[in-house]
Amino acid sequence: MKNRLALVFDGFRGLTKAGILRFGLTLLSLTGALSFIFNATTLISYIAAVSFLSLAGMLGQTLVSRSRLREKNRRDRELFERYIDEISKRAQFYWKMTELKKTLEIDSNGDTHDLVAVKAIAVDQELTFFRLHVGCGWKQPVRQRRKVVVRSCSPISEGVGGVDHEVTTSWLTQEKLEVLVHFHSPVPAGEEFVVLLSIAWPGKCRPFMRDFKADHFMVNFQAPIGRVEYTLKFPPGFEARCQPVGFKQAGIESVTLRPPVSGKSPSFTIEATGVDGGCRFGVILQQKKGGHDAMASHGDD
Question: Selecting from 3.40.720, 2.60.450, 2.60.40, 3.20.20, what CATH number does the domain 92-300 have?
Fold first, then answer.
């Protein structure tokens, strides 16, 4: 009996769900056929016992295998994130950003669509990826983070380009997302390249738009950059108080703020040149009919 059970267990180890279903149907057919020859009650009891033990063994083995696989995946992910973090820290010295154009479109419900265009030059060695951080002014629950969609493509020039890049993302905190854009082919040292990003972020500015909380809209760079243009676009009829932040830092050559123009869709545009690494600047906005609540904060670097 023990040898028979061992053979049964060995035979079922590789079965899929479809295989188990076929096994069950075959077993029922075999039981019906043999019940005419042998005592039906005894035969059914024997087959039922063997079937139960076989299925229990397969279930136990599957649960153990899944548990081991989850643990292995967890360890692999931790190691992967550790190495990526180390590479990302060094990567800021692999390129020199010359220009950043960023447009953040904010809907009345707080959903946002972020368009980012970066010009940079590969320094010292060829590049296979580019890194950017984007932030949110409030802690994002897991279900909210899963809704963020990031895309990137190569620029279109004379009908060439526009092909999607591979993009990987990692949440550094509940408020900060790291984006890695992987190039189709390495960018040679000394060559200029352009990265285009589209980030759809449902509910990113919900406290700002729905709860009328003041919010920081900031840019932050770890390395020097030649020119920055940051535009905030709002729904028709939007009105807000505005407070510039960090405009008088010694590390910024010049910075200006263009408020909304009457008769046009409300927008604020910040333009800066000659920005040193470590500078953080932008505006604090708050809808005019809102109270003076706790402030949130956005930040890109």
Answer: 2.60.40
